[in-house]
Design brief:
CATH topology of the largest domain: TIM Barrel
Number of strands: 31
Strand order of the largest sheet: 10-11-14-15-16-17-18-19
CATH class of the largest domain: Alpha Beta
Strand content: 15-25%
Helix content: 10-25%
Shape: globular
CATH superfamily of the largest domain: Glycosidases
Oligomer: single chain
CATH architecture of the largest domain: Alpha-Beta Barrel
Length: 678
């Protein structure tokens, strides 16, 4: 088997590579927005039969280029080495097409696991301009030359290279990014004693904490997920509607408590309405269905109760309960973590896929406008592959979950990079499922719904005890890296919901007298206010950290270690660029020459005394400071800091052709390193 291993990359993301499996793909990322795949059967036939590879060249060219020439995307090809064709001939054909067709793509080193290869000496030669590299490998006495054009900036953060064609705000949330969605669940003090506390003097007439509402309005939240979480596996929605005095209290098996059902569907929707007051758009609800002890009939009834407009039983029940108009809830998850051994009603992937497909068909018959979200695992598992393959025809998004934490600061801060690989792998699995199911190109792309993410150490903050984490500056840096990941991978993302909203592993904590904004509040606020619009590609070259990681497999894919400067950038419709740099180093400030940033730069810095700094009701150890910079010379990013730089380019994005409204024509919008418009 022959494959490639990434040794350097441009602004494009990577896809995990497993050379031992048939589904291994080579992730080459050209500057083309239309994701195009070489048909595996056709490619294998062309390589294995030397009599047809002449005509095969043109079919490869057509498959590689695709019908559109946009701006960004990924190409995956599987190359099988056989004895009856010279591999270098076929590679030359493919590489010639790549070099001719795409201005930028990642550099890969040729490797082989073929047993007959006896010598693996690799030689690298550079031309004078440094843009061309030729890799030669001696194998079986003959040379195989692989030629690649590499355009990689060598200066750290030397300007913005291009505009990512996909906005941070997906089609359902124009002008809003998806990185600050929240999750609200029946767990600990999240609802009772959190958003809902009728006996507290700070609560309004409905029992809602007004200080919590005010804080959450600052985040301008697009979506909130409800009611769980593990809780939902034994939750029956009808227990939580109707007169409160008639609602039954039930044992709560996820966290071993008692659910009073005082706060249910109607209360949640009313609370969302209050939260949305004064906003241009309401905060969208996202409901999770009970796949543990629930039934399809129960799920259909809940959708009918929430969205029904006809003269039917559950629509009339909603009206009877005082809500004449439908709630029009679009987002519905087909269960939560049904793969987990802690889950009531745990299923195998096969059983879940069979049930999810049937539920999906029925729910779409009741309401075709629903956005159904498949229950994935971590994005890097056989569960994800199987359920996507079986259910991609019936769902609109694929959910994955991950929590990160580590005892040491550096491992803790860089742990969210594992989520980046999970997103990339999930995107590849979605593409594989589309290919295996012959999904036509015109069908909408299934997006990734990262609807549980955060820094959480269950040993430090057990779920059964309310999971009330005290977050440090190190955790804030980790959350900022999480958010950077979502910005960088926004092409694949449909939603990302931090868990939870208040008190439970949350940026907000309530006391009897007020709220505490934890260290993790500040990066969320910064991204929510300013990381709007479209993502920008950037190049970062800095010192790297190498050490043990959590999860352990992350160390294996960080080929050159974890960069101490983690970055993302966006541009809004007014042409204002927001650049975020997270300096995770405990000991070193980073001086970076930034070109093309303008002369009036707003600076926002989040930092503290040390990695263990925390915010409590008595002191604020982690805070946000605002300042100005003239854009001249080098900028010093402090150790243990999150820095956002914002400046106006003078070019409004609204004046740029947007194609289908989601993707920008990047040829009409680009800045040189000196800030001038191309």
């Amino acid at each position: 088997m022959t494959t490639f291993t990434r040794i350097a990359e441009t602004e494009a993301p990577s896809i995990s590579i497993d050379v031992e499996r048939r589904l291994s793909k080579i992730g080459i990322y050209p500057h083309s927005s239309n994701t195009k795949f070489v048909d595996e059967k056709t490619l294998m036939c062309g390589i294995s039969d030397p009599n047809i590879y002449g005509g095969f060249t043109e079919s490869v060219r057509e498959l590689l280029l695709g019908p559109r020439d946009c701006s960004y995307g990924c190409l995956k090809i599987l190359i099988q080495k056989t004895r009856n064709i010279q591999v270098n001939v076929m590679l030359d054909i493919i590489l010639e097409i790549l070099v001719e067709s795409f201005p930028l793509f990642s550099l890969f080193q040729f490797n082989s696991s073929c047993p007959s290869v006896t010598d693996a000496n690799t030689m690298i030669s550079y031309t004078k301009d440094g843009w061309f590299k030729s890799f030669s490998k001696v194998a079986n006495g003959h040379q195989q030359k692989l030629k690649f054009y590499l355009r990689r900036r060598t200066l750290p953060l030397r300007g913005l290279s291009h505009v990512h064609p996909y906005p941070l705000s997906q089609s359902m949330f124009r002008d809003r990014d998806q990185t600050t969605d929240l999750s609200l669940r029946h767990m600990g003090r999240c609802i009772y004693g959190g958003i809902y506390d009728p006996d507290n003097s700070l609560s309004d007439k409905h029992g809602y904490r007004t200080d919590v509402l005010s804080a959450l309005r600052e985040l301008d939240i697009p979506v909130i997920r409800y009611p769980g979480g593990n809780f939902v596996a034994t939750y029956h929605w009808q227990d939580g509607v109707g007169p409160k005095e008639l609602r039954p209290a039930r044992p709560e098996l996820a966290w071993l408590g008692t659910e009073t059902n005082e706060f249910g569907t109607d209360e949640f929707m009313h609370w969302l309405g209050v939260l949305s007051e004064g906003k241009e758009r309401r905060v969208e609800p996202y409901f999770c269905l009970n796949f543990g002890t629930g039934t399809l009939d129960e799920a259909l009834a809940w959708v009918e109760y929430c969205n029904g407009t006809r003269n039917t039983y559950y629509a009339n029940l909603r009206r009877k309960n005082g809500h004449e108009e439908p709630y029009n809830i679009k987002y519905w998850a087909l269960g939560n973590e049904m793969w987990g051994p802690w889950q009531v009603g745990q299923m195998t992937a096969s059983k879940y896929a069979e049930q999810a497909a049937q539920w999906g068909k029925a729910l779409k018959l009741l309401d075709p406008s629903l956005c159904l979200i498949l229950c994935g695992e971590t994005g890097v598992s056989s569960w994800d592959h199987h359920v996507l393959k079986e259910c991609i025809k019936y769902t609109d998004m694929h959910s994955i979950h991950a929590y990160t934490a580590a005892p040491s600061h550096m491992a803790n801060a860089i742990a969210p990079l594992s989520a980046e690989r999970a997103i990339q792998t999930t995107a590849a699995l979605i593409d594989i499922a589309r290919i295996e199911n012959n999904i036509p190109p015109s069908a909408p792309q299934v997006k990734i719904c990262f609807d549980e993410w955060n820094v959480w150490d269950p040993i430090r903050a057990p779920g059964e005890e309310g999971a009330e984490e005290l977050y440090t500056l190190s955790d804030a840096l980790a959350v900022a890296v999480w958010l950077n990941v979502f910005v960088r991978q926004s092409r694949w993302m449909g939603m990302a919901n931090i868990a939870q909203t208040v008190n439970v592993i949350s940026p907000l904590m309530t006391t009897e007298k007020g709220i505490v904004k934890q260290s993790t509040w500040w990066p969320l606020l910064l991204f929510s206010k300013y990381m709007r619009g479209w993502t920008l590609g950037i190049h970062v070259k800095a010192a790297a950290w190498e050490g043990k990681t959590e999860p352990a497999w992350l160390e294996g894919i960080l080929y050159e270690g974890a960069c101490l400067l983690d970055a993302s950038a966006s541009v809004n419709e007014e042409g204002v660029v927001s650049l975020v740099i997270v300096n995770v180093s405990e000991s070193e400030d980073a001086e970076v020459e930034l070109k093309g940033v303008g002369k009036d730069v707003a600076v926002y810095t989040i930092t503290g005394k040390d990695a263990k700094a925390v915010n409590t009701a008595d002191k604020e150890g982690v805070s946000l400071e605002e300042s100005k910079w003239d854009g001249q010379g080098k900028y010093k990013f402090p150790k243990l800091s999150i820095t956002m730089l914002r400046w106006a380019t003078g070019v409004k994005v609204v004046d740029v052709s947007k194609g289908d409204g989601l993707r920008l024509d990047t040829r009409k919008m680009a800045w040189n390193a000196d800030g001038s418009k191309e």
